[in-house]
Design goal:
It is a single chain. It is built from 19 helices and 17 strands. It is an alpha/beta fold. It is globular, with a radius of gyration of 28 Å. The N terminus is likely disordered. It binds CIS-heme D hydroxychlorin gamma-spirolactone 17R, 18S. The site of CIS-heme D hydroxychlorin gamma-spirolactone 17R, 18S has 26 residues, from strand 3, strand 4, strand 5 and helix 9.
Length: 701
C-alpha cells in the first residue's frame, strides 16, 4: 500500500508487528509470565490459598481476590440505543481534492490515507440480540485525521423518525422493549412503537423505510450509509455550502428476505458480524465509496422541503451524488471490548472545514453523545481510551477526573499563563494555523419553542419513496406492515396506522394493509401528496445491483459418492470469479479426498447466496433421500436464489418436487457443466431471481 498514513494504520494484517510498535497500548502476552496487576509473578493459577487441602479458603489470597474483583466489574452499561454492534479498522482515501469545497485536511490530498474505525449496529436490541432483525442500522465512522478525530455518525437510511431532538427519549421509549415485560427483543413489532408512530405523522417516511428491505440488509458489507442531516463544508476562503454524506458499497446493496432474516436470527444470531469478520479475514476487504450532495447556500430554499428537516432526503435526481473517495475495511479488531465496545462516537467531533447546520435533531445530538459516554465509559476521560485517542498530539488545560491516564507535567493548568510560557496557546482560524472557527452564520430570531412551517409536510416523500419501489419491493413493504401490525394487540392502533398514516400517502398501500389485517377499507378523500420528482429510481435497491459475484457464498451440495473432480473444478471456477464456494454435505465424512466445509445442519441454505447440487449417482441418491437436503434446495428456491444441478444432481431437485424450467435454475449433464455454470453465474449476479417470486409462493416451505 502506498501513501502517507496516520499511526493507527497497519496497511495489511501482515503488518501487525508494525502496529504494535506504533500503538504501545496494543498488548500481546507472547512469552510473558502470568502476573498480578501489581506486577507480581503468579506461581499457581489453579488453586485458591486454603487452610489444608480440604480446608476453607483464606481471605489473605490477594491473587484470587484481585482476579475475582476485576472479573466482577467486567461489564459496563451498554449503549441506550445501538447496543448491538460490530466494527472494523480501515483506511479512507480521496479520489480527488475537495479543496474547492472544504479546508478539512483529510479531504485535500488523494495520496493521504486516513485511518478509520467503523462500527455498524442495530438500534433497538440489547448487546446480545440477533443481527438480522428488522431495524435501522447504525453506520458510524471515526476518521483519525491529522487535525483531530472526525466522526460521521450515520445510519443506513437517509432520514429519521422525528424532527426535533426533544422527541428522541419518547421515540426510544416507544420502540424499546416494553416496560412491564422487556419484550420484544430486537424488533419494533409491538404496541408502544406503533402507538407512538401512529400519533406522530412526521415519522411516516422513516417508518416506511424500516418496513422496506433496507431494514434487513444481506450484509454490512453491502449496506449504504447516510449522514442524514445536512452539514456544511467550509473552504479556506470561508465560503460555505450545504452537504449531505452518502456511503455506497462497491459491491452494490442487497437485502435478505423477511423469512430468511427471521430464520437467521435463530440459526445464526451473529450472521452479519460473522460475515464482516470472515470477509476481512479472507482479505475480501469491504469497500464503500464516499459520496456528497453539495448545495449552494443560495439554493437552500429551492427544493420544496426544508434542508434542515431530517425526515427529508434530497432526491439524487435533483442533486447528484458526487463520489469523492473510498473507505476500505482491512483489519479486524483485536479485542471487541477495548475497541468496539469502548469506541465513543459523537456527531460533534468535527474538524476545520466541516460544520453543522441548524437541523434541530442534529443540534440535540451535539449535546447527547458526550453526556452518554460519561456514564457509559465512567467519566470525562473517555477520549484517553486507546480507540478514542486522536492521532495528532493534543494539549489543553483540562485536568483530573476518573481514570485519568496522562500525567500532566507543569505548574500551570490555565490560560493565559506566564509560568508555562503561555502554553498551550490558541491558534488563529487561518488554514495555516489550523484553529477551528465556527461558520459565522447570521442568526436573527425570537427565542421561541416552535416548529417551522417548512417542516409541516410529512407525507410527500413517503409517497415518493413508495412510488419509487419496484413491484416486489412494494409487496415486501405491504407484507412488513401486515406482519408488524399483526403483532399489535390494540385494534385502535392498527386502524390509526392505516387511516391516519398510510392512507395519507398511498391509498393502494393503505387498502392492501387494511385488507390483510381484516380492517374496513380506509377512508377515501385524501389528496395524494405531490413530490418533486415524481419518482426517484435511485431509491430502489433493485437499481443498486452491481455486476459480478464477488464474495457471494455458494453452497456446493454433495454427499460421499459425488464426483470429486467436478467439485474441484467448480470450486476453482467460482473462486476465479471471486466467490466463496463451500462444500456442504450431510456429515463431515470426506468425499473422496475432499473435506466438507460444513454440514447441512450447521450451514442451512439461508446462509448462502446460491446453491449447486453436485453430480455423481451415489452422492445424488443420498441427497435425494435426505429430507434435510431436499429442504435445502426447496428453501433456496423459495428464497429466490440461483440454483444449479449437474448430472445426477438433477434428481435431488426432482425429489424436492421443484417445478421444471423455473427461472434461475440451471441444469445439465456433467458434460454441459461449463454452460450450466455460465447461466448459474448470470443468475447469481442478479442476487435474487425476482421473476420466480409468484411461482415460489406455490412451493411448500
Ligand atoms: Fe444517535 N445516539 N441519537 N442517532 N446514534 C447514540 O450515543 C441520539 C440519531 C447513531 O456505534 C448514543 O454513544 C439522539 C440519528 C449511531 O457507538 C446516544 C438523537 C442518527 C449510534 C444517541 C439521535 C444516529 C448512535 C447512544 C436525536 C443517524 C451508534 C450511545 C436527537 C444520523 C454509535 C452513544 C456507535 C448512538 C443519541 C438520533 C446515529 C444516546 C439524542 C438521527 C450510528 O448519545
Amino acid at each position: 500500500m502506498t501513501g502517507k498514513s496516520g499511526s493507527r494504520q497497519p496497511a495489511t494484517p501482515a503488518d501487525d508487528s508494525k502496529s504494535q510498535d506504533l500503538e504501545p497500548f496494543r498488548v500481546r502476552p507472547d512469552g510473558a509470565a502470568l502476573r498480578t496487576n501489581q506486577g507480581v509473578k503468579i506461581a499457581d493459577n489453579q488453586n485458591t490459598l486454603r487452610a489444608g487441602p480440604r480446608g476453607p479458603s483464606l481471605l489473605e489470597d490477594f491473587i484470587m481476590r484481585e482476579k475475582i474483583t476485576h472479573f466482577d466489574h467486567e461489564r459496563i452499561p451498554e449503549r441506550i440505543v445501538h447496543a448491538r454492534g460490530s466494527a472494523a479498522h480501515g483506511v479512507f482515501q480521496l479520489y480527488e481534492s475537495m479543496s474547492k469545497y472544504t479546508k478539512a485536511a483529510f479531504l485535500q490530498d488523494p495520496i493521504v490515507q486516513t485511518p478509520v474505525y467503523v462500527r455498524f449496529s442495530t438500534v433497538q436490541g440489547p448487546r446480545g440480540s440477533a443481527d438480522t432483525v428488522r431495524d435501522v442500522r447504525g453506520f458510524a465512522v471515526k476518521f483519525y485525521t491529522q487535525e483531530g478525530n472526525y466522526d460521521l455518525v450515520g445510519n443506513n437510511m437517509p432520514v429519521f423518525f422525528i424532527q426535533d431532538a426533544i422527541k428522541f427519549p419518547d421515540f426510544v421509549h416507544a420502540v424499546k422493549p416494553e416496560a412491564p415485560n422487556e419484550m420484544p427483543t430486537g424488533g419494533s413489532a409491538h404496541d408502544t412503537f406503533w402507538d407512538f408512530v401512529s400519533l406522530v405523522p412526521e415519522s411516516a417516511h422513516m417508518v416506511l423505510w424500516t418496513m422496506s428491505d433496507r431494514a434487513i440488509p444481506r450484509s454490512l458489507r453491502t449496506m449504504e450509509g447516510f449522514g442524514v442531516h445536512t452539514f456544511r463544508f467550509v473552504n479556506a476562503a470561508g465560503k460555505a455550502r450545504f452537504v449531505k454524506f452518502h456511503w455506497r458499497p462497491v459491491l452494490g446493496s442487497y437485502s435478505l428476505l423477511w423469512d430468511e432474516a427471521q430464520k437467521l436470527a435463530g440459526k445464526d444470531p451473529d450472521f452479519h458480524r460473522r460475515d464482516l469478520w470472515e470477509a476481512i479475514e479472507r482479505s475480501d476487504f469491504p469497500e464503500y465509496e464516499l459520496g456528497v450532495q453539495i448545495v449552494e447556500e443560495q439554493d437552500e430554499n429551492s427544493f420544496g422541503f426544508d434542508l434542515l428537516d431530517p425526515t427529508k432526503l434530497i432526491p439524487e435526481e435533483l442533486v447528484p451524488v458526487k463520489i469523492i473517495g473510498k473507505m476500505t475495511l482491512n483489519r479486524n479488531p483485536d479485542n471487541f471490548f477495548a475497541e468496539t465496545e469502548q469506541v465513543a462516537f459523537h456527531p460533534g467531533h468535527i474538524v476545520p472545514g466541516i460544520d453543522f447546520s441548524n437541523d434541530p435533531l442534529l443540534q440535540g445530538r451535539l449535546f447527547s453523545y458526550t453526556d452518554t459516554q460519561i456514564s457509559r465509559l465512567g467519566g470525562p476521560n473517555f477520549h484517553e481510551i486507546p480507540i478514542n485517542r486522536p492521532v495528532c498530539p493534543f494539549h489543553n488545560n483540562q485536568r483530573d477526573a476518573m481514570h485519568r491516564q496522562v500525567i500532566n507535567v507543569g505548574q500551570a493548568s490555565y490560560e493565559p499563563n506566564s509560568l508555562s510560557g503561555g502554553w498551550p496557546k490558541e491558534t488563529g482560524p487561518a488554514a495555516s494555523d489550523g484553529g477551528f472557527e465556527s461558520y459565522p452564520e447570521r442568526i436573527d430570531g425570537a427565542k421561541i419553542r416552535v416548529r417551522s412551517d417548512s417542516f409541516a409536510d410529512h407525507f410527500s416523500q413517503a409517497a415518493l419513496f413508495y412510488r419509487s419501489m419496484s413491484e416486489v419491493e412494494q409487496e415486501h413493504i405491504s407484507a412488513a406492515y401486515q406482519f408488524e401490525l399483526g403483532k399489535v394487540t390494540q385494534p385502535a392502533i392498527r386502524e390509526r396506522v392505516v387511516n391516519e398514516i398510510l392512507a395519507s400517502f398511498d391509498a393502494g398501500l393503505a387498502a392492501k394493509v387494511a385488507a390483510g389485517l381484516g380492517l374496513p377499507a380506509p377512508r377515501k378523500g385524501k389528496v395524494p401528496p405531490v413530490s418533486k420528482p415524481q419518482t426517484s429510481p435511485a431509491l430502489s435497491l433493485l437499481n443498486r445491483v452491481k455486476p459480478g459475484i464477488k464474495t457471494c457464498k455458494i453452497a456446493l451440495l454433495a454427499a460421499p459418492g459425488a464426483d470429486a473432480a467436478s467439485i474441484t473444478k467448480l470450486q476453482h471456477a467460482l473462486r476465479g470469479e471471486g466467490a466463496t464456494p463451500l462444500l456442504i454435505a450431510p456429515s463431515f465424512a470426506a468425499i473422496d479426498a475432499l473435506q466438507p466445509d460444513a454440514t447441512i445442519a450447521g450451514m442451512p441454505s439461508i446462509m448462502f447466496d446460491a446453491v449447486i447440487v453436485c453430480g455423481g449417482e451415489a452422492g445424488a441418491k443420498t441427497l435425494a433421500q435426505s429430507g434435510d437436503a431436499r429442504h435445502f434446495v426447496l428453501e433456496a428456491f423459495k428464497h429466490l436464489k440461483a440454483i444449479a444441478a449437474l448430472g445426477a444432481g438433477r434428481d435431488v431437485l426432482a425429489a424436492a418436487q421443484l417445478p421444471d424450467h423455473a427461472d434461475g435454475v440451471a441444469t445439465g449433464d456433467d458434460s454441459q457443466s461449463a454452460e450450466v455454470l455460465k447461466t448459474f453465474i448470470a443468475a447469481v449476479e442478479q442476487h435474487r431471481v425476482w421473476s420466480r417470486a409468484a411461482l415460489a409462493q406455490t412451493v411448500p416451505a
